Amino acid sequence: MKVILAIDGGGSRTRCLAIDLRGQVVSQAESGPSNHLLVAADVVKRSLAEAIDQTLTPARLNRDDVICVSAGLAGVDFDGAGAPAMEELLRELGFDHVVINGDMVIAHAGALGMREGVIALAGTGSAILGIGANGERVKVGGWGPVYGDEGSAYRIGQMSLRAAAREYDGRGPATSLTEALLSALGLHEFRETVARVYVEGMEPREIAALGRVAYEVAEGGDEVARTIFLRAGEELAESVEAAIRQLGFTDAETLV
Amino acid sequence: MKVILAIDGGGSRTRCLAIDLRGQVVSQAESGPSNHLLVAADVVKRSLAEAIDQTLTPARLNRDDVICVSAGLAGVDFDGAGAPAMEELLRELGFDHVVINGDMVIAHAGALGMREGVIALAGTGSAILGIGANGERVKVGGWGPVYGDEGSAYRIGQMSLRAAAREYDGRGPATSLTEALLSALGLHEFRETVARVYVEGMEPREIAALGRVAYEVAEGGDEVARTIFLRAGEELAESVEAAIRQLGFTDAETLV
Lengths: 256, 256
Hints:
homodimer, Nucleotidyltransferase, domain 5, 8 strands
């Protein structure tokens, strides 16, 4: 059986689907992070190799059955910057027919079939891609954890730690985030987070994983956690607005 | 000549003074970062060794002339947590009489002679230490670049990059920060900052160094840069307020 491998690689996870020529998914698997801006090249390569092997092997497929690999990877830009290095990496894994795009490009294709419109991608990191009436592309955001990623899981995790620190210091309101974060991290005292974050060294995707904890606290009605999510939504909306403005869309239809 | 070595170690620099028994500074030198939470142990050791050697050698002093080393180090906490490891490190460098404190403790001693009062330390990172009427200590902040350091050079550098990204995206107002940051980083296009920050890997102290660039832009009257500094001041003031509240100070005198 001939298949196409479709890969979606992010800052935390890499997913791979094997799709037959009638468009049916015949196998799938998941591995670690493959954003080459955030993790080392050997980690990216291992994540891709694992996702592919664990997709092919259980379905008794081998490399010769793969007619094409199409990967949308975080860390590859909307205009293809960074793609050649990733293409090289997939060639080293034994695949000759490779199409690499940024993760926001495949998300746009998935949601809008590359027709005109703006999509906001918010996973571990965040970025907004707009495609105009004549195919022109604009990107907003995507500046990573240090000076971007507004509305992303990383930023929500970071703001949750910040809110807990503010409570601890008596600088901010009480919040259930503190206990929830401690429990998720397996710590007893909020001061222990310093050693965990800096000495043991939490990666952006580990901070991002705290976003899920914050989500449950917000669902439970905690005002501080709710405010973090509302702000995240506002920041994504601001970015979408900027993309709409740049593309000159008017009377835009909104799909959510 | 017998001397005391006084060391002030931060996230970017380590300063060492040799002081004779009449209290006169006879020699001084400076080296790299010594915050063990932010840089590896061998970097801390090298910074301390360099600062000490370059203080002793030009003054024709040797290790036997040193009767005591007193070091205030960022990364050591206000209650001495982290001090034993740093003490061990100075013993390995050949010094037996060693006193280690957090950097905020020596700053407090320098500014207020350990009398009651609150000091805000804002260098590469930031932290607030208050000492009460009965010697009780409270710390506010000091949570590092990921979820703290409000009012620090790191945070100002980070907010400056964020403001430039917002301008680039059309999400925020125009600012002279963009050109100033590009010029400081030797780049031509703001998009190149992504490779610089993540692929080449800028350390917190390198982001913090951009605070100086932002300061000049703010001095030049740029509203976006000015707002970043005003917010930094407000955040430090909030932290100082929290410390004052916890210590129960009333009618506090303010020294700036």
